[in-house]
Amino acid sequence: MEDAVTPAKAKPDAVKLEEAKRLFLESETATQHARDLAQRDRDYYDNWQLTDSEIATLRARGQPPVVINRIKRKVDWLRGLEAQKRTDPRAFPRTPQHERDAESATDSIKFVCDSDDFDGKASSVFENMLVEGFGGIEVSHRVARDAQGNERVDVALKRWPWDRLFFDPHSREPDFSDARYLGGVIWQDLDEVKAAYPQAAADLDGNLRGEVGDTYDDRPKWVTYVSSDRARVRVVLLWRKVKGVWSYTLFCGGAVLEEGDSPYMDEDGNSTCPLILQSTYVDRENRRYGIVREMIDVQDEINKRRSKALHLLTQRQTFGRKGVIDSVSALKREMARPDGHVEFLDGVYGQDFGMLNTTDLASGQLQLLQEAKNEIDGMQASGALSGDTGESTSGRAVLARQQGAMVELAPIFDRYQSWKKRVYRAIWNRIRQFWTEERWIRVTDDERNIRWVGINQPITLADALREMPEEEAIMQARALGLVPDDPRLGMVVGVKQEVAGLDVDIILDEVPDALTLQGETFEAIANLATSGMVPIPPEMIVELAPGLRRDRKDKLLELIQQRQEMEAQAQQQGAPLAEREAVAKIEKDESIALKNVADAQAKAREGVQAIPQFVPGGNVAAG
């Protein structure tokens, strides 16, 4: 079905419909308060920080409803840091025999991640972790067809937004490892669901709607009031663990669309759930939340103090004896105008009328406003982490400040990296389970070369003999009685890089961004080269140059090599005649010696009986 990656139909009655409904409504009811707070946190990120009554009060004063959104700036900064710190998966073998195969596993996982844009989806999950507190991805499979109509199974990555996920409210672990059930909500057009599941069309009218809150409602809400001819229904996908076995139920209203046991397994062959979720923090009531939660109060203070200071600076407090002013409201309007004019009935100013000085109140509000800004700026991401130290310091000092500031962010990124590691492991398990046919994947991690990696390659007898040492291959061919064009040479005798048999560990290969230190090191080396104190080859200087593209480095190295060859040729042409004659004699002697070795090898081969010679392509030619 559209927008949902679900397993193929399997055993009936895996989970009863009423039980599935009960679990969904249980989760929705138990997490109502946490979802309300998460929706508020998202509104603050999206700049909806003032209530309707607050906006009406400000407009009545003549003030603009200004919001200084420091939360969005903070979250976006951390999202940018996550993009800079992106890492790649790397597979390491558990046994020495699988050392070469581990590289194929790494390339396969990277291929799946690139094909389904895992980096972009992971960044969206990281944003949900920061704002609402949790998010996740479903690692499943889908059947695809090529241009020739051949079917193949691909690994599918589907990101689930936080407001489409539900879970066991008794789960307390940040990685949901103790959850007995997980699930997601999908909204679809009714006609599409009926077309995909005609056997359940009669039971789809009883659409299951939420009883508490509007988190799982269809979006956008205003479409419901504009167009009523488009029927939409809520489809719920529930994964439940019973006695160590995961099963699923896909239902809508009063109809079960699909149900069965999970087709997915972990590295030990145990049943597993394809939903991989992660939260940032969990409080003692099992509520999930992100870093925005602690910024709400400070953000409110920033908005309120800014508004209060603006109000004090644009309004004046007055005092006066009753009867001196004809209209107090008119007086207030005139004094709020920069060119206002006030008239008194008896003209006694200073004794019966005056203005109160409120600049101290406005100054106090501005000072507290600055303190609130400093407070929120110091949360999670500080200026030291971005390298903004306000002074000229060395690269090593900047790096030391950044490492110190990263300590505060370590818990967040540690849980995020742990989640990515679990996703990589799930991808590898899907590859081992569903990539059973021969497959070639293209790896483009090298700017100058494109590599093709073969998975599950069948090995024929000719291939096996070709990979053996020459003497061993000859002995095997004689033992089998092989002759040229022998049909047995095309028989499959094994599988090369069979992913189902690989046994590897998946880790994250962390590569810190050390451009600052690299630039400082290059500057020191360049200074040594120009001073002449240390003879440093120019090739080394080019290779160490930071920020220089690989193709530019290759061009410079080529020019340096050409110059060195020209200088060497010029020196050789200018050498004395005796030196050139000595070099020529040495070269002649070397040629005679090489010819003697070649003649001896030829005579040795003449005494060996002719045997089949195996060449690429499986053909056999007489030697």
Automatic annotation (TrEMBL):
Recorded superkingdom: Bacteria
Pfam families: P22_portal
Name of the featured protein: Bacteriophage head to tail connecting protein
Species of provenance: Albimonas pacifica
